[in-house]
Structures are given as structure tokens and as C-alpha cells.
């Protein structure tokens, strides 16, 4: 993935100028030197929302915007005013773009990015924050649909209404999500504990994704949720060397027709590291020396084991070897040498998020 390499380097100064640079068909390196605030750019909607959760412990739950998803059907509706940025508007990103922040205070506030039927995009060293966080359906930070060769690296995500990253139904292939800081601390928690629930939702019918060396902090679910659809549908996911930190809920949630190789991930204070085979996914979750060694026969290398600390839940054996001949056959997986799991927390904390590159 080369992004905008070979094209002009531009430094936008206004929100309108940045819109054009992102969406046009010109190969570009787009350098952001500040936070571009689109919160009120597209105005507001005076709509309705319902209360699907009630917290009795002092926390404030999210409300859910009443829309075509139908989640508010039959529920009491309340007046709700929310920003259209995030809820119904996103910044369209075209092919052959690099979006890179300068320093540690550059990026987008109040709106996310949409990558639909595009290829060769790098998103690096930026913040994406504050998308109607009090409302479910308030906004996704990054939407992928039919995207190929996308590298999402060294970014900071916080306070969004819905997913940090979501892949929609068209296949998303060659996707790498690395060295990011997903900060789940929130004032509006669907799980009534101050932890953000909606982390990753992967729905593309033939997704191929690598999630590597990310800090997934203070969340409570969907870390990721992948799969769940029947028929001619298959997703391949490599989860490697991520640091799951203070997850008051579940991390991995693999549904039917997902194939997941999880290795070298460190789980600190994670209630449920993996929801298990009842969700229908096919997994190879490495926990023992023997399971790590089996990888050699399929991938030509030993896998790295996952570690759960004493404050985390346990994981039953999930070692379906067909994952190794499937996900393990991908060149990006087979050719990777994972970091030793003991080194993951310190490395991730020192290298995740903004201010490390550029």
C-alpha cells in the first residue's frame, strides 16, 4: 500500500478545501496540521430517540436514534437533536490518498471517514473523535465497503456514537489496522460502566483483515465482532500482538463463516477474552506450546501464544487447524514473525497512537 506516494503533497487550511482533496481523483499526500472540526458543518436534525438501556448505578447510557434499523420500534420515543456529521454524513475518501497528521494534534472532530470501492489508502497519525457519542447511530469513525489495500496506522480514536471501524457488506481485502489507540472511555455507555461497547464490526462478505499491535482500552464488546452470515460468505482475520486492556465485557466475538487466527495477544483485566464457539466462528486461539508448534506444519513457523492475566477470564480450547491452512496460507500471515507476548504491553504502550510518526 503506497497511498498518495508519487502525487502532490498538500496542506489544507479549511474544511471545504480538505473535502475536495479527500474526494477528488488525484493522487495526493494530504498533510493535516490541526484538528478539522466538522461537528456543525452539516447542521443538525431534530429527531427522535429511544432508551434501550437503563443504568441504575449512576452511569448514563447511550440513547438510540430512531431510524430505519428499527431498533426503536415499539419503544417510547423522546425528542433528540443530533449533528448530521457522523449520523448521516461522512468524509468521502477516494483512491490513492495518504492522510497523515503532523505532530500529535491533527485530525477530524465530529465526523468520520468513508472508504467505498476505493484502493490504496493510508490513514496515519490522526485523531478521529467526538461523533455524537451520546447516541447509538451517532457515527462510525471509519467505514469500509469494497475497499482494498488500506493501512490504518498510528491513529487515536475516541468518543464515537457507533463503531471505531466498521466493514460493510462488499469485500474489504488487504486491510491492515496497526499501532492504533482505541480509547473506550466514555460518558455515555451502553454497558452502564463507562466503557464503549462498539469497537469493531466486520461484515464484508469476503473480508481479509490484519489487526496488529493496537491498544484496545476501556471497551466492553465487539473487539471485534466478525461474521454471523450464512451462505456464500467468508471472512478471514488475523489478530496478532494486540493489547486488550481493561475490557469490562468481551473482546473477540467470532460469528458463523468467520475464520480467525489469534496469536500473541495480551489480555489484561478482560472479563471475557473470547465469546467462544457458541457464536459459530472457526478459530485458532493459541494457548499452549503444543498449539503453537502445530502452526509449523501449516505455516512454516511457530505461532505465538496468547496470554490472559490473572484478572482476565479463561478461554476454552479453540484450536481448529483448518484455520491454519486457510488464514495461515495468506502471505501477510505466513510471512509474519509475531512479537513475544510478554513484550506486547510495553511495546504497544510506547508505540501506539499519534505523535510517534511524522
Please provide a brief summary of the model.
With 358 residues, the protein is mainly beta. It has helices at 15-23, 84-87, 289-299, 322-326, 331-334, 344-351, and strands at 8-10, 28-32, 35-37, 44-50, 63-65, 77-83, 91-92, 97-101, 107-109, 113-116, 119-124, 127-131, 135-136, 142-145, 148-153, 156-160, 165-167, 173-178, 181-183, 200-202, 208-212, 215-217, 225-226, 235-240, 243-254, 258-263, 266-274, 282-285, 307-308, 318-319.
Question: How would you sum up this structure, described in words?
Answer:
This protein has 358 residues and is mostly beta strands. It is built from six helices and 30 strands. Helix 1 (15-23) links the parallel strand 1 (8-10) and strand 2. The model has no long low-confidence stretch (mean pLDDT 97).
Q: Mean pLDDT, as a whole number?
A: 97
Give the strand content.
35-45%
> From the alpha-carbon coordinates, what is the Rg to the nearest angstrom?
20 Å
Largest sheet, strands/sense/barrel: 15 strands, parallel
Low-confidence stretches: none
List keywords for this structure.
358 residues; mainly beta; 15-stranded parallel beta sheet; 11-stranded mixed beta sheet; 11% helix; globular
Any chance you could write out the topology, listing elements then pairs?
Elements (H helix, E strand, L loop, with lengths): L7 E3 L4 H9 L4 E5 L2 E3 L6 E7 L12 E3 L11 E7 H4 L3 E2 L4 E5 L5 E3 L3 E4 L2 E6 L2 E5 L3 E2 L5 E4 L2 E6 L2 E5 L4 E3 L5 E6 L2 E3 L16 E3 L5 E5 L2 E3 L7 E2 L8 E6 L2 E12 L3 E6 L2 E9 L7 E4 L3 H11 L7 E2 L9 E2 L2 H5 L4 H4 L9 H8 L7
Amino acid at each position: 500500500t503506497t497511498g498518495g506516494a508519487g502525487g502532490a503533497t498538500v496542506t489544507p487550511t479549511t474544511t471545504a478545501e480538505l473535502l475536495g482533496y479527500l474526494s477528488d481523483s488525484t493522487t495526493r499526500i494530504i498533510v493535516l496540521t490541526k484538528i478539522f472540526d466538522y461537528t456543525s458543518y452539516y447542521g443538525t436534525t431534530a429527531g427522535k430517540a429511544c432508551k434501550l438501556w437503563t443504568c441504575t448505578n449512576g452511569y448514563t447510557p447511550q440513547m438510540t436514534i430512531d431510524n430505519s434499523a428499527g431498533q426503536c420500534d415499539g419503544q417510547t420515543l423522546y425528542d433528540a437533536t443530533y449533528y448530521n456529521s457522523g449520523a448521516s454524513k461522512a468524509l468521502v475518501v477516494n483512491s490513492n490518498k495518504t492522510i497523515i497528521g503532523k505532530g500529535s494534534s491533527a485530525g477530524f472532530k465530529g465526523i468520520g471517514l468513508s472508504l467505498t470501492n476505493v484502493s490504496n489508502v493510508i490513514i496515519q497519525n490522526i485523531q478521529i473523535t467526538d461523533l455524537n457519542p451520546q447516541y447509538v447511530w451517532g457515527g462510525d469513525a471509519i467505514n469500509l465497503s469494497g475497499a482494498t489495500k488500506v493501512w490504518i496506522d498510528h491513529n487515536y480514536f475516541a468518543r464515537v456514537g457507533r463503531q471505531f471501524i466498521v466493514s460493510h457488506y462488499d469485500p474489504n481485502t488487504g486491510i491492515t489496522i496497526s499501532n492504533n489507540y482505541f480509547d473506550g472511555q466514555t460518558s455515555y455507555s451502553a454497558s452502564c460502566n463507562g466503557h464503549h461497547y462498539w469497537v469493531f464490526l466486520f461484515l464484508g462478505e469476503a473480508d481479509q483483515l490484519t489487526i496488529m499491535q493496537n491498544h484496545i482500552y476501556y471497551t466492553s464488546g465487539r473487539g471485534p465482532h466478525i461474521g454471523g452470515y450464512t451462505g456464500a460468505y467468508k471472512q478471514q482475520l488475523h489478530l496478532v500482538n494486540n493489547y486488550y486492556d481493561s475490557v469490562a465485557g468481551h473482546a473477540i466475538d467470532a460469528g458463523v463463516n468467520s475464520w480467525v487466527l489469534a496469536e500473541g495477544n495480551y489480555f489484561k483485566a478482560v472479563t471475557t477474552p473470547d465469546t467462544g464457539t457458541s457464536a459459530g466462528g472457526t478459530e485458532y486461539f493459541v494457548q499452549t506450546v503444543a498449539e503453537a508448534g502445530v502452526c509449523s506444519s501449516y505455516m512454516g513457523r511457530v505461532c505465538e501464544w496468547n496470554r490472559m492475566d490473572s484478572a482476565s477470564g479463561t478461554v476454552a480450547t479453540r484450536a481448529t487447524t483448518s484455520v491454519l491452512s486457510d488464514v495461515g496460507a495468506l502471505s501477510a500471515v505466513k510471512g509474519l514473525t509475531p512479537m513475544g507476548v510478554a513484550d506486547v504491553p510495553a511495546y504497544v504502550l510506547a508505540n501506539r497512537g499519534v505523535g510517534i510518526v511524522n
